[in-house]
Design a protein that fits this description.
164 residues; mainly alpha; 0% strand
Length: 164
């Protein structure tokens, strides 16, 4: 018992001297097994979908329904984005989100998430919040298809051929 405690103390001291706080957090976030990661991805993604559906259902509640819709819809999108942190880890997720190919899509998506909540709580503009929810959906879609190779090009060609 004593030998085990001394060994753990020695290993702990070496670990603390060589690791920074951010490295420990990233290390802790990526030590989950694949099945655990997959389970939490499904739970987080499903809760995001459930929040979005619940927000849509709450839209018809008198008076507070619109505020609840905006909050639950935004929380659903945040949960859906966060779910991929379980698959690839938080550091890699942030690194990939801000790659040059999807930088504008990420900024627009985060901007519309914040603007939706601002329109509901600070500005009290329901029409503006609806517009931001639609833009939030479009930004999330554009961000999501950026992970599929050549999907953006296919969507662009489809829209240009439809408009021509």
């Amino acid at each position: 018992m004593r030998i085990t405690m001394k060994l753990a103390t020695l290993v702990g001291r070496c670990f603390w001297k060589t690791q920074t706080w951010s490295n420990m957090w990233i290390l802790d976030g990526s030590t989950l097994s694949f099945t655990t990661r997959l389970k939490w991805f499904v739970i987080c993604f499903a809760s995001g979908i459930l929040c979005s559906i619940l927000g849509t259902a709450l839209l018809f509640v008198p008076k507070a329904g619109f505020n609840l819709f905006a909050v639950f819809y935004t929380l659903g999108n945040v949960a859906a984005i966060s779910s991929t942190c379980f698959l690839m880890g938080p550091f890699k997720q942030l690194k990939r989100m801000f790659e040059p190919t999807r930088l504008i899509a990420t900024i627009m998506m985060l901007l519309f998430l914040v603007l939706t909540l601002c329109a509901v709580f600070w500005w009290n503009k329901k029409g503006l919040a609806i517009i931001f929810c639609v833009l939030q959906f479009l930004a999330m879609t554009w961000y999501s298809i950026s992970y599929i190779p050549f999907a953006r090009d296919a969507v662009m060609k489809c829209f240009t051929s439809c408009l021509s």
